[in-house]
């Protein structure tokens, strides 16, 4: 199961919004609804200002941590093997330029990878 931790955090909205917290079977499976968080979720979608989006996601992250809606007790480690000729495998960066982990949720991104001579 892979949930949360996407490089593009907007892909996580469906798991967090109040609209998916209702009914017998829900995508927001902890059923934690916070209209103020929803306002931030939708506001970050409505802007193309990257700095504003980053700040909104930081606020969302604080709210989620303080709510204790999710408490993860395990973490999967992913191993990636590659040869010496493979370069820049971990060259992935986040929205505000920070270096991200080598892989994300067990997925690899090859848009920055290049092959050299071995």
Write up this protein.
- The protein is mostly helical.
- It has a two-stranded antiparallel ribbon.
- It folds into two domains: 59 residues, no CATH class; 40 residues, no CATH class.
Quick synopsis:
The protein has 118 residues and is mainly alpha-helical.
Q: Estimate the mean pLDDT confidence.
A: 85
- Which structural category do the helix and sheet elements fall into? mainly alpha
Termini, distance in Å? 36 Å
Sheet of most strands: 2 strands, antiparallel
Helix content: 25-40%
- Uncertain runs: none
Enumerate how many helices there are, as a single number.
Answer: 3
Walk across the major sheet and give the strand order. Answer: 1-2
The overall number of domains is: 2
Rough shape? globular
Secondary structure topology:
Blueprint (H helix, E strand, L loop, with lengths): L12 H4 L18 H11 L4 H18 L18 E2 L26 E2 L3
Antiparallel strand pairs: 1-2
Could you name the key traits of this structure?
mainly alpha; two-stranded antiparallel sheet; globular
């Amino acid at each position: 199961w892979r949930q949360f931790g996407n490089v593009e955090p907007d892909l996580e909205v469906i798991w967090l919004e109040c609209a998916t917290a209702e009914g017998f079977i829900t995508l927001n499976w902890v059923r934690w609804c916070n209209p103020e968080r929803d306002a931030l979720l939708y506001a970050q979608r409505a802007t193309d200002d990257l700095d504003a989006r980053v700040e909104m996601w930081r606020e969302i992250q604080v709210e989620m941590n303080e709510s204790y809606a999710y408490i993860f007790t395990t973490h999967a480690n992913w191993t990636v093997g590659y040869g010496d000729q493979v370069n820049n495998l971990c060259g992935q960066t986040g929205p505000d330029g920070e270096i991200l982990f080598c892989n994300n949720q067990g997925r690899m991104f090859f848009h920055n990878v290049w092959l050299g001579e071995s």
